[in-house]
Design brief:
The chain contains 1 helix and 6 strands, in the order E-E-E-E-E-H-E. The protein has about 120 residues and is mainly β. It has a 4-stranded antiparallel β-sheet with strand order 2-1-5-6. The longest helix is centred in the last third of the chain and has 10 residues, at about 90-100.
Length: about 120
């Protein structure tokens, strides 16, 4: 999942969630989050982001605002899959992932748009 914790929305901004990735998958190919991608692993689902669609939405902080932190987190789950579909909003996916997590790892990047 990719989350902007600095977004003005007050509760952050979900850019991408993908879940039900099989445990045997160790990487995703470039472009897998695009609307037209057919490269998601079998059974994986992209949830609805805060842009309102079920695929990746890139970083886009307001021009001139400080650099935003974009957190990319992966989870190992204690359940084989989440009972959610592509209409599940990021906050719901995130809540379900955290509730079922065995472990997680996060990396954060920063991005800002030039003035």
């Amino acid at each position: 999942m990719m989350f902007d914790s600095d977004a003005r929305a007050g509760s952050g901004w979900w850019h991408w969630t993908v879940f039900n990735i099989p445990a045997s998958v160790h990487s995703l190919p470039a472009g897998v989050g695009s609307d037209a991608s057919k490269d998601l692993p079998t059974g994986a689902v992209q949830g609805r982001n805060d842009f309102g669609f079920s695929f990746y939405g890139g970083p886009c902080p307001p021009v001139g605002e400080h650099a935003h932190h974009y957190e990319i987190t992966v989870y190992a789950l204690k359940v084989p899959k989440l009972d959610l579909d592509a209409s599940a909003p990021g906050a719901k996916v995130g809540s379900e992932l955290r509730a079922n997590a065995l472990e997680s790892a996060m990396i954060a990047g920063r991005y800002e748009r030039a003035k």
